[in-house]
Structures are given as C-alpha cells and as structure tokens.
Amino acid sequence: MKNYKYIGITFIILIFGIWAVPKIVDRFSGNKVAMTVIGKVPSYQLTNQDGKLISDEDFKGKVYVVEFFFTTCPTICPEMNENMTKIQDEFFGNPNFGIASFSINPEYDTPEILAAYAKKHGISHPNWHLLTGERDAIFELANQGFNLYAAYNPKVKGNFEHSGYFALINKQGEIVSRLDEYGNPKGYYDGLDPKDLNMLKSDIKKLL
C-alpha cells in the first residue's frame, strides 16, 4: 500500500510540475511579460458620439483601453488623445480592439460636441467610443470603478482635474497590468510617457 501511496504522490507532483512550468516560464522569461488582473470593469451604459447607447457588454470579447478626459481640457488631454490616436492607428484593422474615452464634463460634452471632437482629432476606429452621461455616475466610474482620479475643481485651469493614465482591459472585462521585475503590478500606463505607450502597445498585442 505504501508503494501505491508514493506512486500517487509522485504522479500528482509530476502533473503539477507540467502545469506549473509554463506559468513559471511566462513569469520569469526574458522574452515574455507576465500580466495580472488588478480589478474588474464595473457595469456602465453611456451615450457615444453617434448618439448610441454603449455599455461594458459592448466591449466583451475585445481588448480595449480606457481614459477619462474632456473636450475643452487645456492641459494634458490634447497630448493624451494624440497618443491614443497613435494606438488607434496601430490596431486600426483589428475588430477585437477598442477604446473607451469617458468625458468628465458631460453637461458640455454632448454627443454632437463629441462627434465634432472625434472628427477634428482623427478618431475613426469604429470601436473608439467617446462617452457621455450623468456626471456623478462618470465620476464614480472613474474613482471607484477604474481607480483613475477625476474631479470638478473650479480653482484649476479648465475647472476639472483627472488622471493622465490609461487602463488596459482584457477580453474578459478585467483590468490588467504587467508585473515589474519584482513581481509587483505596474497598474496603469502613463498616457504622456513614450516608454509607457510602447509597453501598452506591446501588452495589447499580447492580449489580442
């Protein structure tokens, strides 16, 4: 009986080892980047630049990038969306890629305003949705849902302040992050940093 017991334990260890090796290789290989889930995308339903209702369900099965912005932003938004347009162009022909840009000034950013903004800034990917709705719901989505800061502040230029980071979402509707060399999640991607943008492109390709 003891021999059978040891054979059983050996078999379990062998099976576990076969399963675990690819995970270890993926985590530590210099040729691959390990990624992890850091959150789940909350439910939402907002209106895009074409006047169409878009929800988180519309992005299921797609890899997409999330940002918070507003069309009259006088500071970081123009550069963020210039960089986002480059990401759009990189994956333009891929129907499984998308972008969700949430306006934090929805009272001004109507679908008509967003459509004009899209045209002006070369936003043409069919899965790039500029989204507007109720401000409190969008602020909750930013701050609690995606952990990307957004707030109204009449003391700052433009009256709003927000994070300049992009969130990456996988096909399962999860917020994902690459791990650094110490095994810690990087979190988000700086929308103003060329190095981060290159990492983002690489990670999108990995998820696609």
Automatic annotation (TrEMBL):
Gene3D superfamilies: Glutaredoxin. Keywords: Copper, Membrane, Transmembrane, Transmembrane helix. Coiled coil: none annotated. Pfam families: SCO1-SenC. SUPFAM superfamilies: Thioredoxin-like (SSF52833). Residues 35-205 form the Thioredoxin domain. Signal peptide: none annotated. PROSITE patterns: THIOREDOXIN_2. The chain crosses the membrane at residues 6-25. The keyword Transmembrane helix applies. Belongs to the SCO1/2 family. PANTHER family: ELECTRON TRANSPORT PROTIN SCO1/SENC FAMILY MEMBER (PTHR12151), LINALOOL DEHYDRATASE_ISOMERASE DOMAIN-CONTAINING PROTEIN (PTHR12151:SF25). This is SCO family protein.
